[in-house]
Write a structure and sequence with these properties.
By secondary structure, the chain is mainly α. 59% of the residues lie in helices and 5% in strands. It has one domain.
Length: 208
C-alpha cells in the first residue's frame, strides 16, 4: 500500500470517527432535552396537586406540543397560591425553555452532512455538521460546538427546573452549598445562562 493509499484510509477513518462522535453528541443532547421534559412533567404534577400520581403524567405526556405544555404550566402557576414571589423566575424559565425548544427542533429535523472545500485537510469540528433540511444548500449549519452548548444549557435548565419542582412540593428552601446563593433567592430572580459564580449550579458557568 503506497503513502497516498495510507493517507486516504486514514482520512476515511477520521471522517467515520468524527461522524460517529457527532451522532453520539446529537443523541446525548436530545436525551438531555428528554430529561428536561421529564422535569417539566414533575413541575406540572406539583403545580396540579403536589403528589406524584400516574394520571398527571399521563395527561402531560398526551400533550405533545411544547408550546401548549408551557402555556398550561404558566396557567397552573398563576392559579397556585403562595408563588407570587417567584413569578419573575418562572416567567424567565419558561422563556428559556422556549428558546431550547426552537434549537431542539433543528437538532431533530436537520440532517448530518460532511464535506470540506478548497482542498483543506479534513477538520472534524468544521466538516461534520447539521445542515438545514430539506434545503441543505442553505447557509445555516450547526456544528459540534453548537450542539455541545445546547446540551450544556439544556442540562442546566433541566436541573434548575427540577430544583424548583422540589420547592413547589416541599414549600421551603432546599439544602445547598452554604457559601453559595440560597435557592430561595435564586427562585426570585430571572434565570440567566451561563449562571453567575456563586449560583448553586455554577458548575455550568463554563460553557463548552
Amino acid at each position: 500500500m503506497d503513502d497516498n493509499s495510507d493517507e486516504m484510509l486514514a482520512e476515511k477513518n477520521a471522517r467515520r470517527a468524527a461522524r460517529d462522535q457527532f451522532h453520539i453528541m446529537r443523541s446525548e443532547a436530545l436525551n438531555a432535552y428528554a430529561q428536561l421534559e421529564q422535569h417539566m412533567a414533575i413541575v406540572f404534577d406539583n403545580l396540579l396537586h403536589g403528589a406524584q400520581t400516574l394520571d398527571s403524567f399521563v395527561v402531560f405526556g398526551s400533550i405533545l406540543n411544547t408550546r401548549s405544555r408551557l402555556i398550561m404550566l404558566e396557567k397552573l402557576f398563576q392559579l397556585r397560591p403562595g408563588l407570587e414571589d417567584f413569578k419573575r423566575f418562572f416567567d424567565g424559565l419558561l422563556k428559556e425553555i422556549r428558546k431550547i425548544e426552537t434549537f431542539r427542533n433543528k437538532l431533530v429535523h436537520w440532517i448530518v452532512l460532511e464535506g470540506s472545500t478548497g482542498g483543506k485537510p479534513f477538520d472534524p469540528e468544521r466538516d461534520v455538521f447539521l445542515a438545514e433540511h430539506p434545503n441543505i444548500f442553505a447557509e445555516r449549519k450547526l456544528y459540534s460546538i453548537d450542539i455541545a452548548r445546547f446540551w450544556h444549557k439544556t442540562e442546566f435548565f433541566s436541573q434548575l427546573l427540577y430544583q424548583f419542582s422540589l420547592y413547589i412540593k416541599m414549600r421551603h428552601a432546599l439544602p445547598g452549598a452554604p457559601e453559595k446563593t440560597p435557592w430561595i433567592e435564586i427562585f426570585q430572580e430571572r434565570p440567566t445562562y451561563p449562571p453567575p459564580i456563586g449560583h448553586q449550579l455554577d458548575r455550568f458557568h463554563e460553557t463548552p
